[in-house]
Structure formats: C-alpha cells, structure tokens
C-alpha cells in the first residue's frame, strides 16, 4: 500500500482563503499498525466522517519499529496503533515515538492507561480469560493457579506461549508470584495441555467445540466477535459453544492488557495525527470500540456492549501495566526453558 503525503497542493491566493474545515478535509494521517485492519477500521471511519481527515493504514505483523527506524526522518508514519503494553513501551524504548502532552487527552484517559511522559496512550482493555465448554465444564469459577491443577490434564488448549497476549499473562504471573512459582505453574500448565499450542485465540474455541479440549485461554473480545459473526456460521458456533470464566489472582482480580496508540517520532502530519489520537480517546470512539470490537472502554463509567456484559463482571487487576511490560523478557525465556510450545510430554 502506498503511503505518502496525500494532502492536496493548493496554490495561489486560494491557499490564504482556506477555511479550517477545508484544511481538515484535505488532511491525511498515516497509521502504522500491528492491529488487524478490520479491527481498527470502524473507529478510523468514524474519525474521517467527523473530521474529514483521511487515514492510510499500513499493517505489519512484525518489524514495525524496525521499519520506522529504517525510514528515519522521512518516515511517513504519523500514528502507531498496537496491542499489548510491552509493544507500546518497546516503541518508546526504541525511539520511534515522541511525547505528546495534551490536556484534552489526559482528561479523557485515566493516568494508569497512559505513559507519564506522553509516549503512548491506552485506548481499550481486554481480559485474558478462560473459554470453557458449555457441555463439559460445570465450574463456575476458576483461578489462574487452577490451570496447573492435574484435574485439567489433557484438557487445556492455548496458542503459542510466545504470543504477546500470553507473554503479558505470564509476565503478570511473575509480578504476582515471583519467577520460581511461576515456572512451576507453567510446567503444570504444559502438563495439562491437550495438544501442541497453535493457532490464534478463536481456533482455541473451535478446538473446544470439536471436543479436543475442555478449556482454553483467550481474550474476551474474540468471544464477542465470534458470537456476532453472521458471515461465518462456523465461528458463530465456536463462540456459542463456550462460556467465559474470569480467572483471578490471589487478590481476586483478573489480568487485563490494552490496545493503544502513540505519536510517531517524525510524524509529517503532526497536527492531524494529534487530532486522531484525541478522537481515539474520545467518548465517541470509546463507544465504537465497545460496540463494534467488543473491547472494554478505558473511559471511566462507560459500559461495554451488551454481549460483553453478558460474560459477567470484570474486576480488572490493578497491577501497573509497566510492571507487566518489565517481565516480558523473563516470561519469554521461561516459555522456552519449560518447553511450553512443545506441547504435553508424550
């Protein structure tokens, strides 16, 4: 996809006569994202409808920061959108973001969901929960520690332990339990696997529906997407085959992670990029995320969609997000050391 300066070039006296509204209509914001384009399209479309500013999206499944670094001062990237607190903090550490101190944004987003120096902003929350078979699992409650209980031997499905979502969960476990207890727990989790980790979160629900396992670990919003997928009867069946259980730590709270945005270091359309980030933090955008993507809003008091409310009450963990990010490397090394992605021992 070609990403460049799509702003119209208007010459002569007409330039001086442009109104603010017309100037906005000629704008563009280039978005580099790790998020699947279909998940951010609804909110970007709403931004364009309100502001007249177009967005150009470049999706990368890896190497986003490296690409921006390689592009240097001429990088067309204006806004970075991604999932996972570790990726947001990594973008800051790698020097591909710039600080944005904006009173409007800071009023909209709670302090715990934004970088103190303004390098990233959390936009939505998602909980890492247990998908449980409606037919075969009668448990109404479960803890994260329970996932290592031998009662679940051969009954758990999970995607790769090296995926961002699982690394964040394991990092949180290290913060709560310490590395030694977490490693023993991870060994128990590995022993309980029904098969070698693979696929994404949605296929884990599919494996439950197919009887390959009884429970799985996945993000909440995927259940909403599956249950409301009228274009894919198979996915709808998967979503309706499971219950959502909110696992807890010893403090009675459930692990959450965020999606977020950052202002790119050399944003060529900085003013319009700031307008986009303001919009993403706004009440209107938070509603779009909640209703279209089935994510939890970060706006205090704004309720999730009816689909998500039906899961039950989320009591989000208060562990600082930066503490989760700090444990990512240790969690990744632990996954390899335990051999989690090798699957259960034969």
Structure report:
This protein is α/β, with parallel strands linked by helices and 346 residues long. It has 16 helices and nine strands. The chain has helices at residues 13-17, 20-25, 37-51, 64-71, 85-93, 103-108, 164-177, 179-191, 201-209, 220-227, 233-240, 270-281, 283-293, 306-309, 321-326, 328-338; strands at 28-33, 54-59, 79-83, 121-133, 156-157, 215-219, 242-245, 256-263, 296-297. Strands 1, 2, 3, 4, 5, 6, 7, 8 and 9 form a nine-stranded mixed beta sheet that branches. The N and C termini lie far apart (46 Å).
Give me the secondary-structure topology.
Layout: H1 13-17, H2 20-25, E1 28-33, H3 37-51, E2 54-59, H4 64-71, E3 79-83, H5 85-93, H6 103-108, E4 121-133, E5 156-157, H7 164-177, H8 179-191, H9 201-209, E6 215-219, H10 220-227, H11 233-240, E7 242-245, E8 256-263, H12 270-281, H13 283-293, E9 296-297, H14 306-309, H15 321-326, H16 328-338
Parallel strand pairs: 1-2, 1-3, 5-6
Antiparallel strand pairs: 3-8, 4-6, 4-7, 4-8, 4-9
Summed up:
The chain is of the alpha/beta class.
Keywords:
346 residues, 16 helices, 9 strands, alpha/beta, 9-stranded mixed beta sheet, 42% helix
Classification by helices and strands: alpha/beta
**Can you give the mean pLDDT?**
92
Low-confidence stretches: 1-25
Largest sheet: 9 strands, mixed
Strand content: 5-15%
| Total helical segments | 16
